[in-house]
Request: fold
Amino acid sequence: MRKLTIHSVPILISFTWLIVLHQTFNPVILKGPDFLKFYLILISGFYASIFLLKNLKETISRTTLYFSGFILLLGIIKLVRGMILGKPIGFLIIILLMEIVVILIFMVDDVNKKIK
Reply:
């Protein structure tokens, strides 16, 4: 339950930012720079919560992987929408690639701990 609460805080903060500044619940309809700001707030808060859990000596659980999968899916949806509309998507691709690498690092670290 503590992990769920810790991971929910950055999501709540980023969606509060979205509602206050843009008066919408849907981040996919935002234009490029606004979506990137929202997405970077979401990712940085989420990874800060992961490092907080690591400092509390907690293991990376499926909850963490589900949250990271949700965030990755949101970026992929926006990527597809940008490709369909013919918009520039370079920064989003770089962010998504870095996110995939970080997710893989967490998964490999988790598998290594389970093997030992």
